[in-house]
Amino acid sequence: MILILLIVQIDLSELMMELLVIKHMNRLPRLFTQSIQATFAFKTRALFCIVSVALGIASVILIIAAMEGAYVKAFDIVEKFGPDSVLITGGDRQLRATGNVEKTITLDDLAAIKESFPEGYVVNPVVTIGACRATYKNKKFQTHLVGVGDNYSVAWSWPLVQGRGIIIKDITGVKNVAVIGQYLARELFGEYSPVGKYIFVKGFPVRIIGILQKKGMTPNGQNLDNRILIPITTAMKKVQNEKKYISAIKIRFSDQTRINYYVEELEVFLKKRHKILPGAQSDFTTISPKEIIVFLVTLTGTLILFIGTSGIISLFVAGFVIANLFLLSVKERSQEIGIRRALGASQMDIILQFLGESVILTTLGGIAGSVLGLFSSKLFAVVADFPMHFSWKGFAVGLLLSSLVGILSGIQPSLVAARLNPVEAITK
User: Fold this and answer.
1) Which of 184, 331, 367, 389 is most buried, by CB atoms within 10 Å?
2) Band of the pLDDT at 273, cuts 50, 70, 90?
3) pTM for this structure?
4) Composition of the chain by helix, strand, coil, percent to 5
Protein backbone atom coordinates (compact mmCIF):
# COMPACT_ATOMS: atom_id res chain seq x y z
CA MET A 1 0.00 0.00 0.00
CA ILE A 2 2.80 2.38 0.95
CA LEU A 3 4.59 1.47 -2.27
CA ILE A 4 1.48 2.29 -4.31
CA LEU A 5 1.11 5.66 -2.56
CA LEU A 6 4.78 6.47 -3.27
CA ILE A 7 4.34 5.60 -6.95
CA VAL A 8 1.19 7.73 -7.17
CA GLN A 9 2.97 10.62 -5.41
CA ILE A 10 5.91 10.41 -7.82
CA ASP A 11 3.52 10.36 -10.80
CA LEU A 12 1.66 13.38 -9.44
CA SER A 13 4.95 15.25 -8.91
CA GLU A 14 6.01 14.54 -12.47
CA LEU A 15 2.58 15.61 -13.71
CA MET A 16 2.80 18.88 -11.75
CA MET A 17 6.26 19.56 -13.16
CA GLU A 18 5.00 18.95 -16.70
CA LEU A 19 2.02 21.25 -16.13
CA LEU A 20 4.34 23.90 -14.69
CA VAL A 21 6.64 23.68 -17.72
CA ILE A 22 3.64 23.89 -20.08
CA LYS A 23 2.36 26.90 -18.15
CA HIS A 24 5.68 28.71 -18.47
CA MET A 25 5.97 27.77 -22.14
CA ASN A 26 2.53 29.23 -22.78
CA ARG A 27 3.30 32.27 -20.66
CA LEU A 28 6.28 33.49 -22.69
CA PRO A 29 4.45 33.82 -26.04
CA ARG A 30 1.55 35.47 -24.23
CA LEU A 31 3.88 37.96 -22.52
CA PHE A 32 5.62 38.66 -25.82
CA THR A 33 2.27 39.38 -27.50
CA GLN A 34 1.26 41.66 -24.64
CA SER A 35 4.60 43.49 -24.86
CA ILE A 36 4.11 44.14 -28.57
CA GLN A 37 0.55 45.36 -28.05
CA ALA A 38 1.61 47.66 -25.21
CA THR A 39 4.58 48.95 -27.21
CA PHE A 40 2.48 50.23 -30.09
CA ALA A 41 -0.37 51.42 -27.89
CA PHE A 42 1.78 54.50 -27.18
CA LYS A 43 2.90 55.43 -30.69
CA THR A 44 4.52 58.79 -29.91
CA ARG A 45 6.57 57.33 -27.09
CA ALA A 46 7.56 54.36 -29.25
CA LEU A 47 8.66 56.63 -32.12
CA PHE A 48 10.70 58.84 -29.80
CA CYS A 49 12.48 55.82 -28.28
CA ILE A 50 13.19 54.24 -31.67
CA VAL A 51 14.65 57.46 -33.12
CA SER A 52 16.88 58.09 -30.08
CA VAL A 53 18.32 54.56 -30.25
CA ALA A 54 18.61 54.65 -34.06
CA LEU A 55 20.86 57.72 -33.97
CA GLY A 56 23.26 56.07 -31.52
CA ILE A 57 23.36 52.77 -33.42
CA ALA A 58 23.91 54.62 -36.72
CA SER A 59 27.02 56.19 -35.18
CA VAL A 60 28.27 52.74 -34.13
CA ILE A 61 27.66 51.40 -37.65
CA LEU A 62 29.64 54.32 -39.07
CA ILE A 63 32.56 53.53 -36.74
CA ILE A 64 32.67 49.88 -37.77
CA ALA A 65 32.31 50.79 -41.46
CA ALA A 66 35.17 53.30 -41.14
CA MET A 67 37.41 50.80 -39.34
CA GLU A 68 36.83 48.01 -41.84
CA GLY A 69 37.02 50.42 -44.77
CA ALA A 70 40.35 51.78 -43.57
CA TYR A 71 41.62 48.22 -43.04
CA VAL A 72 40.68 47.22 -46.59
CA LYS A 73 42.04 50.48 -48.03
CA ALA A 74 45.32 50.18 -46.14
CA PHE A 75 46.04 46.75 -47.54
CA ASP A 76 44.90 47.84 -51.00
CA ILE A 77 47.36 50.76 -50.91
CA VAL A 78 50.14 48.53 -49.57
CA GLU A 79 49.42 46.01 -52.32
CA LYS A 80 49.66 48.73 -54.98
CA PHE A 81 52.71 50.32 -53.39
CA GLY A 82 54.34 46.92 -52.92
CA PRO A 83 54.71 45.13 -49.56
CA ASP A 84 58.39 44.62 -50.41
CA SER A 85 58.98 48.27 -51.38
CA VAL A 86 60.66 51.36 -49.94
CA LEU A 87 60.41 54.85 -51.42
CA ILE A 88 63.13 57.40 -50.65
CA THR A 89 62.30 61.04 -51.38
CA GLY A 90 64.22 64.27 -50.99
CA GLY A 91 63.55 66.59 -48.02
CA ASP A 92 62.36 65.88 -44.48
CA ARG A 93 58.74 65.19 -43.54
CA GLN A 94 58.01 68.66 -42.17
CA LEU A 95 59.24 70.32 -45.35
CA ARG A 96 57.26 67.92 -47.55
CA ALA A 97 54.12 68.59 -45.49
CA THR A 98 54.27 72.25 -46.60
CA GLY A 99 54.33 71.20 -50.25
CA ASN A 100 57.98 72.10 -50.77
CA VAL A 101 60.30 69.34 -51.98
CA GLU A 102 64.00 69.78 -51.29
CA LYS A 103 66.48 68.30 -53.77
CA THR A 104 68.77 66.07 -51.72
CA ILE A 105 68.72 62.68 -53.49
CA THR A 106 71.34 62.31 -56.22
CA LEU A 107 72.30 59.97 -59.02
CA ASP A 108 75.35 59.06 -56.93
CA ASP A 109 72.99 57.95 -54.12
CA LEU A 110 71.18 55.80 -56.66
CA ALA A 111 74.41 54.11 -57.79
CA ALA A 112 75.59 53.63 -54.19
CA ILE A 113 72.32 51.97 -53.15
CA LYS A 114 72.46 49.62 -56.13
CA GLU A 115 75.98 48.60 -55.14
CA SER A 116 75.46 48.35 -51.36
CA PHE A 117 72.04 46.67 -51.33
CA PRO A 118 72.17 43.68 -53.68
CA GLU A 119 68.94 42.41 -52.04
CA GLY A 120 67.13 45.16 -53.91
CA TYR A 121 66.11 43.47 -57.14
CA VAL A 122 64.69 46.76 -58.47
CA VAL A 123 66.18 50.20 -57.82
CA ASN A 124 64.32 52.76 -59.89
CA PRO A 125 64.91 56.54 -60.02
CA VAL A 126 62.05 59.02 -60.34
CA VAL A 127 62.09 62.67 -61.41
CA THR A 128 58.81 64.48 -60.82
CA ILE A 129 58.27 67.32 -63.28
CA GLY A 130 54.67 67.97 -62.27
CA ALA A 131 51.79 69.58 -64.09
CA CYS A 132 52.17 70.21 -67.81
CA ARG A 133 50.10 70.49 -70.97
CA ALA A 134 50.05 67.72 -73.57
CA THR A 135 49.12 68.73 -77.13
CA TYR A 136 48.02 66.53 -80.02
CA LYS A 137 47.01 68.42 -83.17
CA ASN A 138 44.36 70.88 -81.96
CA LYS A 139 43.69 69.06 -78.68
CA LYS A 140 45.27 70.20 -75.41
CA PHE A 141 45.00 68.51 -72.05
CA GLN A 142 46.47 69.16 -68.60
CA THR A 143 48.45 66.19 -67.33
CA HIS A 144 51.36 65.15 -65.08
CA LEU A 145 54.92 64.54 -66.33
CA VAL A 146 57.36 62.10 -64.68
CA GLY A 147 60.85 60.92 -65.61
CA VAL A 148 61.53 57.24 -64.86
CA GLY A 149 64.10 54.47 -65.19
CA ASP A 150 63.95 51.44 -67.44
CA ASN A 151 62.38 49.15 -64.81
CA TYR A 152 59.57 51.48 -63.78
CA SER A 153 56.86 48.94 -64.65
CA VAL A 154 58.31 46.38 -62.22
CA ALA A 155 59.14 48.94 -59.53
CA TRP A 156 55.56 50.19 -59.34
CA SER A 157 53.73 46.97 -60.37
CA TRP A 158 52.35 48.83 -63.35
CA PRO A 159 52.23 46.68 -66.52
CA LEU A 160 51.50 47.86 -70.04
CA VAL A 161 48.37 47.03 -72.00
CA GLN A 162 49.75 48.14 -75.35
CA GLY A 163 53.15 48.84 -76.91
CA ARG A 164 56.40 48.65 -74.96
CA GLY A 165 57.95 50.29 -71.94
CA ILE A 166 60.97 52.55 -71.57
CA ILE A 167 64.18 50.55 -72.06
CA ILE A 168 67.84 51.22 -71.29
CA LYS A 169 68.51 52.41 -74.87
CA ASP A 170 65.88 55.13 -74.42
CA ILE A 171 67.67 56.31 -71.28
CA THR A 172 71.23 56.22 -72.56
CA GLY A 173 70.14 57.79 -75.85
CA VAL A 174 68.03 60.50 -74.12
CA LYS A 175 65.17 59.57 -76.45
CA ASN A 176 61.99 61.59 -76.93
CA VAL A 177 59.66 58.68 -76.16
CA ALA A 178 56.79 58.36 -73.69
CA VAL A 179 54.44 55.91 -72.03
CA ILE A 180 51.06 57.39 -71.15
CA GLY A 181 48.07 56.53 -68.96
CA GLN A 182 44.72 55.38 -70.31
CA TYR A 183 42.81 58.47 -69.19
CA LEU A 184 45.14 60.78 -71.12
CA ALA A 185 45.09 58.45 -74.12
CA ARG A 186 41.29 58.57 -74.22
CA GLU A 187 41.18 62.36 -73.87
CA LEU A 188 43.65 63.00 -76.70
CA PHE A 189 42.99 60.09 -79.07
CA GLY A 190 39.50 58.83 -78.27
CA GLU A 191 39.07 55.21 -79.38
CA TYR A 192 42.15 55.26 -81.66
CA SER A 193 45.48 53.74 -80.65
CA PRO A 194 48.03 56.43 -79.70
CA VAL A 195 51.06 54.14 -80.08
CA GLY A 196 53.43 55.61 -82.66
CA LYS A 197 51.79 59.05 -82.54
CA TYR A 198 53.61 62.24 -81.45
CA ILE A 199 52.46 64.68 -78.80
CA PHE A 200 54.08 67.92 -77.65
CA VAL A 201 55.13 68.22 -74.01
CA LYS A 202 57.11 71.13 -72.54
CA GLY A 203 57.76 72.46 -76.03
CA PHE A 204 59.26 69.33 -77.64
CA PRO A 205 57.71 66.31 -79.39
CA VAL A 206 57.67 62.83 -77.85
CA ARG A 207 56.63 59.62 -79.55
CA ILE A 208 54.18 57.43 -77.64
CA ILE A 209 55.53 53.90 -77.35
CA GLY A 210 53.17 52.32 -74.80
CA ILE A 211 49.93 52.54 -72.78
CA LEU A 212 49.86 51.79 -69.06
CA GLN A 213 47.30 49.57 -67.37
CA LYS A 214 44.51 51.42 -65.56
CA LYS A 215 45.62 52.30 -62.03
CA GLY A 216 43.00 54.64 -60.54
CA MET A 217 43.42 57.38 -57.97
CA THR A 218 46.07 57.98 -55.31
CA PRO A 219 45.01 58.46 -51.64
CA ASN A 220 45.43 62.23 -52.07
CA GLY A 221 43.19 62.35 -55.14
CA GLN A 222 45.66 62.33 -58.07
CA ASN A 223 44.61 60.48 -61.20
CA LEU A 224 47.40 58.01 -61.93
CA ASP A 225 45.94 57.32 -65.37
CA ASN A 226 46.48 60.94 -66.40
CA ARG A 227 50.25 61.08 -66.69
CA ILE A 228 53.16 60.86 -69.07
CA LEU A 229 56.31 58.85 -68.33
CA ILE A 230 59.51 59.76 -70.18
CA PRO A 231 63.11 58.52 -69.77
CA ILE A 232 64.74 60.00 -66.68
CA THR A 233 67.65 61.37 -68.73
CA THR A 234 65.23 63.14 -71.06
CA ALA A 235 63.44 64.67 -68.07
CA MET A 236 66.68 65.83 -66.43
CA LYS A 237 68.52 67.14 -69.48
CA LYS A 238 65.76 68.44 -71.75
CA VAL A 239 63.18 69.61 -69.21
CA GLN A 240 64.97 70.41 -65.95
CA ASN A 241 68.49 71.07 -67.23
CA GLU A 242 69.60 69.01 -64.24
CA LYS A 243 72.71 66.79 -64.00
CA LYS A 244 72.75 65.66 -60.37
CA TYR A 245 69.50 65.59 -58.39
CA ILE A 246 66.50 63.30 -58.71
CA SER A 247 63.17 63.34 -56.86
CA ALA A 248 62.99 59.82 -55.45
CA ILE A 249 64.21 56.24 -55.54
CA LYS A 250 61.85 53.25 -55.44
CA ILE A 251 63.43 50.02 -54.19
CA ARG A 252 61.92 46.52 -54.06
CA PHE A 253 63.58 43.86 -51.93
CA SER A 254 63.60 40.13 -52.49
CA ASP A 255 62.70 39.36 -48.84
CA GLN A 256 59.66 41.40 -47.80
CA THR A 257 59.69 39.94 -44.27
CA ARG A 258 62.83 42.02 -43.58
CA ILE A 259 61.47 45.25 -45.03
CA ASN A 260 61.67 47.13 -41.70
CA TYR A 261 65.31 46.08 -41.34
CA TYR A 262 66.10 47.37 -44.84
CA VAL A 263 64.42 50.71 -44.05
CA GLU A 264 66.64 51.15 -40.98
CA GLU A 265 69.76 50.18 -42.93
CA LEU A 266 68.91 52.57 -45.77
CA GLU A 267 68.41 55.45 -43.33
CA VAL A 268 71.76 54.78 -41.66
CA PHE A 269 73.43 54.43 -45.06
CA LEU A 270 72.06 57.69 -46.48
CA LYS A 271 72.68 59.67 -43.29
CA LYS A 272 76.30 58.61 -43.49
CA ARG A 273 76.52 59.56 -47.18
CA HIS A 274 74.87 62.95 -46.57
CA LYS A 275 77.05 63.57 -43.50
CA ILE A 276 74.08 64.01 -41.16
CA LEU A 277 75.11 64.09 -37.49
CA PRO A 278 73.47 61.70 -34.98
CA GLY A 279 70.22 63.20 -33.69
CA ALA A 280 70.03 65.75 -36.52
CA GLN A 281 67.05 65.96 -38.88
CA SER A 282 67.41 63.86 -42.03
CA ASP A 283 67.37 65.61 -45.39
CA PHE A 284 65.39 62.73 -46.92
CA THR A 285 62.24 60.74 -46.18
CA THR A 286 61.68 56.99 -46.31
CA ILE A 287 58.19 55.62 -46.96
CA SER A 288 57.42 51.96 -46.33
CA PRO A 289 54.24 49.82 -46.05
CA LYS A 290 54.41 50.13 -42.26
CA GLU A 291 54.25 53.93 -42.45
CA ILE A 292 51.32 53.82 -44.86
CA ILE A 293 49.35 51.63 -42.44
CA VAL A 294 50.30 53.81 -39.44
CA PHE A 295 49.13 56.92 -41.31
CA LEU A 296 45.76 55.39 -42.18
CA VAL A 297 45.30 54.03 -38.64
CA THR A 298 45.98 57.51 -37.24
CA LEU A 299 43.56 59.08 -39.70
CA THR A 300 40.91 56.48 -38.92
CA GLY A 301 41.51 56.83 -35.17
CA THR A 302 40.64 60.52 -35.31
CA LEU A 303 37.45 59.75 -37.19
CA ILE A 304 36.52 56.93 -34.80
CA LEU A 305 37.13 59.15 -31.76
CA PHE A 306 34.79 61.82 -33.12
CA ILE A 307 32.01 59.50 -34.27
CA GLY A 308 32.49 57.15 -31.30
CA THR A 309 32.05 59.94 -28.78
CA SER A 310 28.89 61.04 -30.55
CA GLY A 311 27.60 57.45 -30.63
CA ILE A 312 28.26 56.79 -26.94
CA ILE A 313 26.57 60.04 -25.95
CA SER A 314 23.60 59.23 -28.21
CA LEU A 315 23.17 55.74 -26.72
CA PHE A 316 23.52 57.07 -23.17
CA VAL A 317 20.90 59.73 -23.84
CA ALA A 318 18.67 57.14 -25.52
CA GLY A 319 18.89 54.84 -22.49
CA PHE A 320 18.18 57.73 -20.12
CA VAL A 321 15.18 58.84 -22.19
CA ILE A 322 13.76 55.31 -22.41
CA ALA A 323 14.16 54.73 -18.66
CA ASN A 324 12.34 57.97 -17.81
CA LEU A 325 9.59 57.38 -20.36
CA PHE A 326 8.97 53.93 -18.94
CA LEU A 327 8.92 55.25 -15.38
CA LEU A 328 6.28 57.73 -16.52
CA SER A 329 4.47 54.90 -18.27
CA VAL A 330 4.39 52.89 -15.02
CA LYS A 331 2.51 55.74 -13.33
CA GLU A 332 0.11 56.07 -16.28
CA ARG A 333 -0.54 52.32 -16.40
CA SER A 334 -0.74 51.65 -12.66
CA GLN A 335 -4.39 50.55 -12.90
CA GLU A 336 -3.56 48.15 -15.74
CA ILE A 337 -0.71 46.71 -13.66
CA GLY A 338 -2.94 46.38 -10.59
CA ILE A 339 -5.69 44.61 -12.53
CA ARG A 340 -3.18 42.17 -14.07
CA ARG A 341 -1.75 41.40 -10.64
CA ALA A 342 -5.27 40.90 -9.23
CA LEU A 343 -6.05 38.46 -12.06
CA GLY A 344 -3.03 36.34 -11.20
CA ALA A 345 -0.04 37.88 -13.00
CA SER A 346 3.15 37.43 -10.99
CA GLN A 347 5.80 40.05 -10.35
CA MET A 348 8.00 38.22 -12.85
CA ASP A 349 5.23 38.53 -15.47
CA ILE A 350 5.19 42.31 -14.99
CA ILE A 351 9.00 42.51 -15.10
CA LEU A 352 9.18 40.43 -18.28
CA GLN A 353 6.45 42.47 -19.98
CA PHE A 354 8.12 45.82 -19.32
CA LEU A 355 11.56 44.48 -20.21
CA GLY A 356 10.04 43.01 -23.37
CA GLU A 357 8.56 46.38 -24.32
CA SER A 358 11.90 48.09 -23.75
CA VAL A 359 13.88 45.52 -25.74
CA ILE A 360 11.36 45.53 -28.61
CA LEU A 361 11.63 49.32 -28.89
CA THR A 362 15.42 49.40 -28.78
CA THR A 363 15.73 46.46 -31.20
CA LEU A 364 13.52 48.29 -33.68
CA GLY A 365 15.74 51.31 -33.09
CA GLY A 366 18.77 49.11 -33.74
CA ILE A 367 17.36 47.92 -37.06
CA ALA A 368 16.46 51.48 -38.07
CA GLY A 369 19.91 52.66 -36.95
CA SER A 370 21.62 49.94 -39.00
CA VAL A 371 19.73 51.01 -42.12
CA LEU A 372 20.51 54.66 -41.37
CA GLY A 373 24.16 53.76 -40.75
CA LEU A 374 24.34 51.91 -44.07
CA PHE A 375 23.07 54.89 -46.08
CA SER A 376 25.14 57.33 -43.99
CA SER A 377 28.32 55.34 -44.63
CA LYS A 378 27.63 55.33 -48.38
CA LEU A 379 27.02 59.09 -48.31
CA PHE A 380 30.09 59.73 -46.13
CA ALA A 381 32.27 57.71 -48.51
CA VAL A 382 31.20 59.94 -51.42
CA VAL A 383 31.23 63.31 -49.65
CA ALA A 384 34.39 62.86 -47.54
CA ASP A 385 36.14 60.57 -50.06
CA PHE A 386 36.91 58.15 -47.21
CA PRO A 387 36.69 54.36 -47.59
CA MET A 388 33.67 52.89 -45.78
CA HIS A 389 32.92 49.16 -45.70
CA PHE A 390 29.54 48.00 -44.36
CA SER A 391 29.45 44.41 -43.08
CA TRP A 392 27.06 42.11 -41.23
CA LYS A 393 29.41 42.38 -38.27
CA GLY A 394 28.32 45.99 -37.82
CA PHE A 395 24.66 44.98 -38.12
CA ALA A 396 25.10 42.28 -35.43
CA VAL A 397 26.93 44.67 -33.10
CA GLY A 398 24.20 47.26 -33.62
CA LEU A 399 21.43 44.81 -32.67
CA LEU A 400 23.40 43.55 -29.67
CA LEU A 401 24.02 47.07 -28.37
CA SER A 402 20.43 48.13 -28.92
CA SER A 403 19.14 45.08 -27.01
CA LEU A 404 21.61 45.78 -24.20
CA VAL A 405 20.40 49.38 -23.99
CA GLY A 406 16.83 48.08 -23.83
CA ILE A 407 17.61 45.70 -20.97
CA LEU A 408 19.60 48.22 -18.93
CA SER A 409 17.12 51.06 -19.39
CA GLY A 410 14.12 48.80 -18.71
CA ILE A 411 15.33 47.17 -15.49
CA GLN A 412 14.41 49.94 -13.05
CA PRO A 413 10.96 50.75 -14.53
CA SER A 414 10.08 47.03 -14.65
CA LEU A 415 11.08 46.56 -10.99
CA VAL A 416 9.05 49.63 -9.97
CA ALA A 417 6.03 48.25 -11.85
CA ALA A 418 6.40 44.78 -10.32
CA ARG A 419 6.58 46.15 -6.76
CA LEU A 420 3.32 48.11 -7.02
CA ASN A 421 0.67 47.06 -4.51
CA PRO A 422 -2.23 45.68 -6.59
CA VAL A 423 -4.94 47.23 -4.40
CA GLU A 424 -3.29 50.66 -4.30
CA ALA A 425 -2.55 50.52 -8.03
CA ILE A 426 -6.20 49.80 -8.93
CA THR A 427 -7.59 52.56 -6.72
CA LYS A 428 -5.22 55.26 -8.07
Assistant:
1) 184
2) very high
3) 0.65
4) 60, 20, 20
How far, CA to CA in Å, does 208 sit from each of 59, 153, 311?
50, 16, 54
Say if 331 falls within a structural domain. Answer: yes
What is the phi/psi pair of residue 253, to 5°? -105, 150
Contact between 70 and 299 under an 8 Å Cβ cutoff? The reply is yes
Residue 14, classified by CB atoms within 10 Å of its CB into exposed (0-12), middle (13-18) or buried (19+), is exposed
DSSP lists the bridge partners of residue 133 as: 142
Q: Tens digit of pLDDT for each residue in 328-382? A: 888 887 888 888 888 887 888 888 888 888 888 888 888 998 888 888 888 877 7
What phi, psi does 231 have (nearest 5°)?
-55, 145
From the list 161, 157, 150, the residue with the least C-alpha distance to 193 is 161
User: How many CB atoms neighbour CB 70 within 10 A?
Assistant: 22
Host domain of residue 238? 85-254
54 with 98, same domain? no
121 domain-assigned: yes
Number of H helices, E strands in the chain: 14, 12
Q: How far apart are alpha carbons 320 and 329 in whole angstroms?
A: 14
| Geometric angle at alpha carbon 340, from 338 and 345, rounded to 5° | 115
